[in-house]
Write a structure and sequence with these properties.
This protein is of the alpha/beta class and 313 residues long. The protein has a single domain, classed as Alpha/Beta hydrolase fold, catalytic domain (Rossmann fold, 3-Layer(aba) Sandwich), CATH 3.40.50. Helix 2 crosses helix 9 and helix 3 packs across helix 4. The two termini are 33 Å apart.
Length: 313
Amino acid sequence: MPDYLITTRKLHRGAFAAEPGPTRFLKIAAAASPDPGQAIKRKSWLAEVLSLARTHEDPRTGEDCGDIVVFVHGYNTTPVASIERHRVFHAGLANAGFKGAFVSFDWPSDNRAINYLEDRSDAKMTALTLVDDCISLLAATQYRDCKINLHVVAHSMGAYLVREAFDDADDRPAIAHSNWTVSQLCFVAADVSAGSMAANDSRSRSLYRHCVRLTNYQNPYDAALKLSNVKRAGVAPRAGRRGLPDGRPHKAVNVNCGEHYAATFEDADNNGHSWYFGDAAFLGDLAETLAGDKDRRVIGARRSNAQGELQLL
């Protein structure tokens, strides 16, 4: 089965580069790497994704129903790394029970960790494109004779891009005045300030306005998000490490994965930032979150601790 990506990378000598460029809709053959020659027309790309999204009919109305997940990767990600993460994540979610279409939004991140600030700048620039060529495009399917739930899963700096995109959407009359909604919005190791996720913070009001539920997966052992990291000097505590603030809206759910991570990956050679996509417990929890048919307290392998905080087992 082919993989479906939206890429906003500029071309340099016939290959995708780490600079913003025009949007291309890619249909990538199995085991192939992203290549400009794989671009197809937007209309054809959308039709194929919608076909994959439809998984069943509503027995009462006969309408087509299904799901689309849009995955937004983090910083320090090449086109090859993007498609590799896409395939691992998609396969893991499918094994956990997710049925529907899975697409990735590939923004022009570089492949050098030292380029953190430049990647952040490119993410902010690309947010406009995520609104125009992905969110509004796929959200429009909600107005046809079908019930397709649109979900967004963002990792690391991808969460920052999504937050900026939602904010930009509300500043654009053509989009702001349309009743578009993302069903499940999930942040994984989110590289956004924890304080900015409060209900009264102007930076995140649009996130909460345009989603049914926001789930933040937090790991307090995430070394990539620690404040002592030299490339992160001067930034506030991050939601992917600290968690959501107490002043979050009721629709926002924080899931602390620290106990599970420490028990499962204590001796692993990783920084606690990208382990999620190969972990069965996380993938099972996420698949049930995307299904949206269970209360937040009984999804997956969760429990509430003495303080009422949700934890991933």
